[in-house]
Write a structure and sequence with these properties.
alpha/beta, 378 residues, 16 helices, TIM Barrel, seven-stranded parallel sheet
């Protein structure tokens, strides 16, 4: 019996736990020195020990069985398939998931915010690496990264990521450098994505810093809930949905989905309870500003929220009220995700979601666990 326990499940969020040297190993030789070393701090010792244990269990059936028994409790580098793609395939056998989107965890820190040459080198290495990591198992969908610093760079990187074999495209939701992602200069990018039938995904971290540092300068010690320092703290969580909400709203109001009705967008690991007031606010904003903004007045669908139902899918956090979300916003919007092997995904995400789904029918459950992500992936 698998962890899915008879359910047909597509998983919208999982990660690899990169090791030192992983990104550099996929960089062009002339560009390797441009990348920052992977700085894991104290967590680096955890990675080193996990590598040692992985080496020891090769050929050791008992050690392998013990790790498999800890499928949902071992997290980070200690998880089955955290950094070894062959082990991830075994983990999927045990999980029982039919497909799984795969994101990097740390690689962006090695090139993000760098010069154009650094970003270009890092993105190429990342996309080559994530595609190759997933290439041996059709259940693994590698998520490439497309920076939006300039339209020319975005289009170049997009073509390369698709050629490598990336099955989805992670776009940043950080404030644009000088023009919105919906500016006409980006039209070729959206056309190319739509033409190739790949989904866009917006993931936690893509917006950069969620709030100003001064909000955390309160004279009191602050750590994140995992004890890792300054990754995600309480005030960050209150604001993390703002960037993807604005990004997708802009896509709607600027007609991207009118021009490309088959384009799909997934909002991953940024919660979902904000969606209920958002769809109402979208329609109210549309009614108000259609008088002064031609792009809003010219939308083809009657309501802005119709585009959400047609083109957007969102992952709830473990513990959010999926049954209430479905009741309030519809069964067509929400996706199951495990966040494997990150600890935020919980030791039993299915049970956590199911505890909030009393009264949800079989069809809506199938949409949550399978059909909505199947639609996102085309």
């Amino acid at each position: 019996m698998t962890y899915a326990d008879g359910r047909t499940i597509l998983d919208a969020d999982s990660h690899i736990m990169e090791l030192p040297g992983w990104l550099e190993g996929y960089a062009d030789p002339a560009e390797r020195d441009l990348l920052r070393p992977l700085a894991l701090g104290g967590a680096g010792r955890l990675a080193d020990k996990a590598i040692e244990r992985a080496e020891r269990r090769k050929g050791d059936a008992l050690a392998a069985a013990e790790l498999e028994a800890a499928l949902m409790t071992a997290k980070g580098w200690d998880a089955l398939g955290a950094f070894d793609p062959a082990e991830r395939s075994r983990a999927l056998d045990l999980l029982g998931f039919e497909r799984q989107l795969v994101f990097a965890t740390f690689a962006f820190s090695q090139f993000g915010g760098g010069s154009p040459d650094v970003v270009r080198a890092g993105v190429r290495a990342h996309n080559r690496g994530i595609a190759e990591w997933c290439a041996g198992d059709p259940r693994l969908v590698g998520v490439g990264y497309v920076p939006l610093d300039t339209p020319e760079l975005a289009l170049d990187v997009l073509d390369e990521a698709l050629d490598f074999g990336c099955g989805a495209l992670h776009l940043p939701t950080a404030a644009p450098v000088d023009k919105a992602p919906t500016h006409p200069d980006f039209d070729p990018l959206w056309a190319r994505i739509a033409d190739r039938g790949r989904p866009v995904v917006l993931h936690l971290g893509g917006q950069g810093r969620m709030i100003r540092k001064t909000w955390h300068n309160n004279g009191r010690p602050v750590t994140d809930f995992l004890g890792g320092g300054e990754n995600v703290r309480a005030r960050d969580v209150l604001m993390m949905h703002i960037a993807p909400e604005l990004f997708v709203s802009t896509m709607i109001f600027d007609g991207i989905f009118d021009r490309h009705p088959g384009l799909m967008v997934g909002v991953i690991e940024q919660g979902a309870e904000w969606v209920v007031p958002w769809v109402e606010r979208l329609d109210r904003t549309q009614r108000t500003f259609r008088k002064t903004e031609p792009s809003i007045a010219g939308l083809e669908l009657d309501k802005a929220s119709d585009y959400v139902h047609r083109n957007v899918r969102i992952t709830p956090f473990v513990g959010e009220r999926v049954g209430w979300l479905i009741d309030q916003a519809g069964a067509d919007l929400f996706l199951f995700s495990s966040d494997f092997p990150h600890p935020e995904g919980n030791r039993d995400p299915i049970a956590k979601f199911e505890a909030t789904m009393d009264g949800v029918g079989d069809e809506a459950r199938r949409a949550f666990y399978h059909d909505n992500l199947a639609g996102l992936l085309g």
